Amino acid sequence: MSDVVSSRLKWTVAGTIVLLAAAMGLKAWDEHQRADANLLLTLQAEAEALAGRVGGRADTVETAIRLVTDNHASRSAIAAATPGVDAVMTLADAKQAPEGSRLDAAATVAETLMQTKQRAGLSELGDVVLVSGSGSQAVIALAPAGTWLPVMSNGREVSLVSGGLRVVAGDPAPRPANGLRPIRQARFEKGQGLQRSALACSDIAGGGIAVCSTTRADVFTRDDLVSLLIFALLLAAPVLAITGLLGRLSKKQADTFVEAARDEQADRIMATVMRSARAGYWEWTPEQTSIFLSEASSEMLDLEGMRTVSLGTFLKQVHPEHQARVRQAIEKSREIGWLQVAFVLAKPPLRWIEMRGSGSDTEDGKLFGGILLDISDRKQAEDRVKAAERRLRSALEGFNGPFALWDHRKRLLYWNRAFATDFGLTDTLRTGMTHETVTIARSGAIRAERPSADDNQSTLIGLQGGRWLKLVERPSPDGGLITIGIDVTENIGIEEELRRQKERMRKTMLDLERSEGRAGELARKLTEEKSRAENAANSKSAFLANMSHELRTPLNAINGFSEILAHELYGPLGDPRYKGYAQDILASGQHLLDMINDILDMAKIEAGKMTINPQPIDPVDPVDAAVRMIRRKASDKDIEVVLDVQPGLPEIDADHRAIRQMVLNLVSNAIKFTNAGGKITVAVQQYGPDIKVSVTDTGIGIPAADLPRLSRPFEQAAGSHDRNYEGTGLGLALTKSFAEMHGGELILSSIEGEGTTVSFTLPIAGPGEAEDESDDRDAA
């Protein structure tokens, strides 16, 4: 019986040894495969990182090309200001270069790129060629390919591949690609004997060029030999372990197994919780030579199945640009007793990981551990907020007038460069300064200051350099303050000239009264002075009419970027106060833009520069368009808007845009002076040779004494200011001017407390024939 047991034991031991040998062999093969996989991952990450770097350079060059095409910037200046670019020119100019030159080779590549709709390629002389536009007026940029890639060491090689050509870093001369093509999956290629090479390529966004990273990788390395020797030595140990375990499984060992099972179950529960929170646990071994990772941490670092890794293996999962900083933080933590560092993983997609930890004393000695957190969402949100702030700051810095933002306690929050330079406060301003302090500090740069005659909330300021600014300060809904300055130097000059003309005219009239004998001469002078005064007034109106682009452009930029922030188009802003500030800026900017548009339109009309373009149109079309545009504004105030159209109306010769603007002005006024629950009726009817458009509201009405003056510019009803209604008072004046341009007229009727009806007529025959008929009637 004992012989049978002995025989079975021998066969059991022999079988166990065979199985262990097979397992160790598979382990050696698995480690070899993992080493190859890690090498390919590193090469792929390196190729993609370099592709992103080259793509960034290509984006910079494309931006420079657009400056040439869109803004007609100097090509030589753009090339000199763009690192790594030798020349920027049109395709037509490049074709004129001598045959065999760099420009001739670049022109050939550019034509091929335009045909294949790609943005970048390599020329036969080793240059990177980028193209923008189409046809002979397309603009190309030329850059030496060798300068776009870093020179690698340790047997690694980085190259650019395009169109059968290959340029290696450090060797700008092109060579055949020899079958090398851009791929997304890294691979090994055979060499001579036991030699082979690892290859990874990544396409650059936009196509045309790929970045490839290669390195030599032996089939059987020294590490593989060492591993085999270690496994051979370890194979002898299990014989003793197995024979000992056969007869020595005690109750204490069984309890140990039960405890281990419980710990494993607790670890699984903790792993589930940590994975849900996108977090994982880590700790150093007592010797601090390797790092233990929880299952969630291993998955987070793309090291599935690896629970204890060396510091080198851990750092390979970190992006190359962050590896040195992470290594330094880990080494320093051993001295200071805590660790906190954020880094990007090497393998795409882009993920941010934060590593936190601290040391503590235990019975087994010093224990150092902590958690890994996936903070990608937080980083992306922070980047979006920073990008939005940069865009808004760029827009405000691009505004050539002073701009400042104050909080509800009138403390300075933000100012642009023009605010500091115009008032000589470059070295004085700081966040939190009060409005009074800044006002006192800027007095040294001001030589004159007086209220604006046309706006009691604006101030005209004369600077020491001779410039004049119109400083407008408007409150924001949260109780803050917005300060905007506009350069009105030329306008002030015109006003001064007008004042001097009036003074000379007054003196001329006095001289005329004192000397009857010089009546004829003085009358002639009076006529001349009057003409000059009228010319000065016309110049002022013409100046305002021509200022539309200069005034609207910065306001459009402010409104556009503040709208992006207010609607959080690029993601949440983080702090809700930012959204409120952005809403305040947008509301104030839109209100100011509406005021400027009305003033400029009225100035154009007075200067004779506002014209209409009559075309045969359906009279209902522009009216319906205006009602649809403003219906939402009425709905927000709970006001019903009804469109009443007489059927069978004929076409009329009129300006579609002008009619739409007139209806918008009238309905906007009606909404402004109609309380919630009211009704506005827009009617379109034919009365003889005219089409009549009427807007009737159930609002507060207008006193009969105010009706004659409401169609004049900047006029409002006497009670309007008491009711805090916003507006410039130009709506009815603009509508009347547009109606008269069409040959029609504006009609007002109102009953105070019951409502108002404002109508305008449009001749069906158009403005020209209407004027002819009027002249015929006058002659008769």
TrEMBL record:
Domain (PAS) ranges: 388-426
List the GO terms this entry assigns under cellular component, sorted alphabetically: plasma membrane
List the molecular function annotations (GO) for this entry.
histidine phosphotransfer kinase activity; phosphorelay sensor kinase activity
Q: Does the keyword Cytoplasm belong to this entry? A: no
* EC number of the protein: 2.7.13.3
Q: TM spans, by residue?
A: 225-246
- Which keywords accompany this UniProt record? Kinase, Membrane, Phosphoprotein, Transferase, Transmembrane, Transmembrane helix
What's its catalytic activity?
Answer: ATP + protein L-histidine = ADP + protein N-phospho-L-histidine
What this protein is called in its record is histidine kinase
Q: Which organism is it from?
A: Hyphomonas jannaschiana VP2
